[in-house]
């Protein structure tokens, strides 16, 4: 009798396991074997952060991921919209422009094939210059050669707008974060104005090799910039950089991970779980991920969420504004 019971138990457990395997296989039946994630230039936060969550997806879900070096947030929107990339990361300022067809690099193109996934972190805007240059304020940049990141990136779009708002004429230089940091060291540019999750790795590497000034806006400049641009004040805690012991106030924009609308709902929901359910692991990838929390989904006010993201958020008890639910969504499975 005991042997018969054990036999039925083994058969039962095997059936359950096979059912689970079958359900898992069915869920994955429409998943791509590999995906590409649009990041930005090497040396910037996007590349580190994007490669990090991509590796987590590959480890946890078995989908091969590649972090693609791109021009940054604006180009990622265009590449994901066109289907050349399956996933990407963007800043909500360029995303709003792209959503409305007002993106400088693709005028008239409304990137409505793009869907929001998870909130990443706020991108503060900061400037670094070598200490020996004597440059330690925005007004000091008049007439100087200033690097603003790669064309199409958040920094290259918004720093020129900030300079114009403040009446500060500069000579703009474009390039990747690592490249511009090297140009600053070599004296080819006078300052590097960037935007990325803090600490910005290129800035940290610079201050490890040179005495630098890292600065942002005065209170009066903050008032002008926030009045004219989709940014909010943010305080960068003292000690974030070795050379900045005190708190520093600047402006920032939120960043989001994005997906093409045709990515499978179940895959995106599993990606949301991988990234958002283990924040400690994400913070080990980059400190900026302390803000990679599901409750920060409310910082998206215009872009449709991917159905998989909606299902994840609803399962966690969050209410998604009906204006942000995509037209193709038929309900969670």
Task: Tell how many strands the DSSP assignment holds.
Answer: 10
- Beta-strand content estimate: 15-25%
The ordered string of helix (H) and strand (E) elements is HEHEHEHEEHEHEHEHEEHHH
Tell me the structural class: alpha/beta
Number of helices: 11
The CATH topology of the largest domain turns out to be D-Maltodextrin-Binding Protein, domain 2
Biggest sheet layout: 10 strands, mixed
**Alpha-carbon Rg, integer:** 23 Å
Q: Mean of residue pLDDT?
A: 91
Please identify the top-level CATH class of the largest domain: Alpha Beta
* Terminal Cα span: 42 Å
Segments where pLDDT lies below 50 for 5+ residues? Answer: 12-21
**What is the level-2 CATH architecture name of the largest domain?**
3-Layer(aba) Sandwich
Q: Percent helix among the residues? A: 25-40%
As for the number of domains, it is 2
Tell me the name of the CATH homologous superfamily of the largest domain.
Periplasmic binding protein-like II
Overall geometric form:
globular
Notes on the protein architecture:
With 333 residues, this protein is α/β, with parallel strands linked by helices. The protein has 2 domains: 31-121 and 255-324, Periplasmic binding protein-like II (D-Maltodextrin-Binding Protein, domain 2); 123-253, D-Maltodextrin-Binding Protein, domain 2, CATH 3.40.190. It is built from 11 helices and 10 strands. It has helices at 2-27, 45-61, 73-82, 92-99, 154-166, 177-185, 201-209, 219-228, 265-276, 279-285, 307-315, and strands spanning 34-38, 64-68, 87-91, 114-130, 145-147, 171-173, 191-195, 212-215, 232-236, 248-260. Strands 1, 2, 3, 4, 5, 6, 7, 8, 9 and 10 form a 10-stranded mixed sheet that branches. Helix 2 links the parallel strand 1 (34-38) and strand 2. Helix 2 (45-61) packs across helix 9 (265-276). The longest helix has 26 residues, at 2-27. The protein is globular. The two termini are 42 Å apart. The model is unreliable at 12-21 (pLDDT under 50). Keywords: Receptor, Signal. Residues 1-19 form the signal peptide. This is TRAP transporter solute receptor, TAXI family.
